[in-house]
Amino acid sequence: MSPTTPSLSTLLPPLICGTATFNDQYNPDPYKLPTTEIVHRALSLGVRAFDTSPYYGPAELLLGNALDTNFVREKVARRDYFLLTKVGRISGSEFDYSASWVRKSVSRSLERLRTDYLDVVYCHDVEFVSHEEVLTAVVELRKIRDESSSVKYVGISGYPVTTLCEVAEMILEKTGEPLDIVMSYANFTLQNTTLSSLALPRLKKAGVDVVPNASVLGMGLLRHAGVPQGAQGDWHPSPNELRSTAKAASDWCAARNDKIEKVAIRFAIETWMREGAVVGSKGDPASGIPWKRETIEKFGGTKLGVSVIGVSKVEELDETMRVWRSILDGLENGEEIALESNRGMGERLWSLKRQEEVRKLARGIRKVMGPWIDYTWQSPPPGFVNKRSALEEPKQLPTPAASPSPVPFTSLGEASSDTE
């Protein structure tokens, strides 16, 4: 086996559009979402990476439909955008990491996404299976990579950072080749930064190239409206005491004429952009120059920490991009980008001001959250049993509670104004 070259960190965009929202956990009918418009608008705004999974209901199909259009074929070459998907998780209580299922899942994803290759394939939510099962799946994915090039880069995803570290270390020890990518969710937020404090040194030592941060609102915990409750009811794994503390933090923020989700989103993306740079990437930063293939050289050639963001509406996507570009404007080399993208120096100055405001508010929110800082819920939950046997044919089920959740932007409204 030989790793794919060049390394993923030299190519992957630091902003990834997640599609976990394209299912009925967060939306009553995902087929009624403007998914094609979202994907086309994202590409128009410079987004060049999409994360999905067969576990996210019809997400792969909807994403594939959106990409298999004349608009995309005429505007963006396949080589210029990244598709990241997953194998192994079938439903809330069904997992299959066998070599045969890995191959079947990859083949199905290729068909659904209407592509000849997948840029990244993760083993989905590795904490629910044994380390040996993960090893089997990773080895099989690498065989596919070496045999057919239909898989370019291989990684794992999950929630407990200790498990992610243990698996990454085990893969390196057993195979002599490090993982290309490890995605964590809900572990670099206002409430929990263990991805940086606990996992980052170990993942780096294990040779992991890229570590994306997903679910910057802690699966919706850090919202003024509280945890989301969709068609599947109250699925959020957080205890009531943590929810009450998050509500108190939200009230504290509201008393200062701000919203906790606005602070939480900017804090996580902006801080991880710096702290996660050591396991970041140098791909197209989507800074706002229309239909121009950009490189990170605009920002001095350094890597940026990678974030995964999901939306359900075009308007939410537009707000997401305003936040993202404002953060870019505030970087050390942001002046040139602000000017070239026609945002101007006023936007850069506002970004720097907002950056300081968010830092102060974040300190206050974390003080309110007190003993719940860096608390993590148990995953898998107590008593979990994998109901999937190797002989069963899996059922296509909608996405259950965990893993990784999208970021709702319905209440953001962040704009370049002193009166947000």
Describe this structure in words.
With 420 residues, the chain is an alpha/beta fold. It is 39% helix and 10% strand. It is built from 12 helices and 10 strands. α6 links the parallel β7 and β8 (181-185).
List keywords for this structure.
eight-stranded parallel barrel; two-stranded antiparallel sheet
> How many distinct helices?
12
Q: What is the string of SSEs from the N terminus onward?
A: EHEHHEEEHEHEHEHEHHEHHH
Distance between the termini: 52 Å
**Which outline best applies?**
globular
Q: Report the helical percentage.
A: 25-40%
Strand content: 5-15%
Q: What oligomeric state is this?
A: single chain
The whole-number mean of residue pLDDT values reads 88
- Kindly name the structural category: alpha/beta
Q: What profile does the largest beta sheet have?
A: 8 strands, parallel, barrel
Radius of gyration over all CA atoms, rounded: 20 Å
Number-wise, the strands total: 10
Low-confidence stretches: 397-420
Q: Going across the biggest sheet, name each strand in turn.
A: 1-2-3-6-7-8-9-10
